[in-house]
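Notes from the 1:1 (GR / supervisor)

We went over the backlog. Supervisor wanted to see one worked example end to end before approving the batch request, so GR pasted a single chain during the call. The sequence is below; no edits were made to it. Supervisor asked that the structure be written out right there so they could see what the output format looks like.
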Amino acid sequence: MLTVHCTADALTRGGDVLLMDADVLHEERVFDPLVAGNASANRLLIDRDFEAGDEPVKLCLRDGVPIELRKQLAVGLQYDTIGESEGFFRLKDDTARRFAQIVEGYVDTGRANLPHEEALRDLLLERGNEFETADVTGAPWIEIDFPDDVTRAAETVLSQLRPIVSRATQTTD
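Structure output shown during the call:
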């Protein structure tokens, strides 16, 4: 939470904001659905093919609207789609400002030690109908939190990543 709080100036100076977890190894193509589509919508990414457990931040939707973003879901939560949040969000100007306010509230009340997903959850509960969800199921990515994740990234994910081709070096036939 504190790291996001330190970026409050960037969140509130105006314009769209891309908020991205720094510990994610991913393919470049995941940015396409994040930034494409309706230019006036907030957006988040969901991967429906995930390993259940305590570590993944689950994203739950009901009728296409985000209703939960947490590692631990409430018993009896009603949703029709569940996946893992990839940790990448596009926030429109006013939504980014509101997010900064929510984060500031956490810091001011002594909860800076909580993960920033808690503030994002509050934002989604408040404005879920203002978010679009882009499904990136099948795209290679991994969040690297533990030594085993580094091994899995090296042995599995890296080989699935497509090489980045510079647009300047592409040729047309």
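Supervisor's comment: The mean pLDDT is 91.
Batch request approved.
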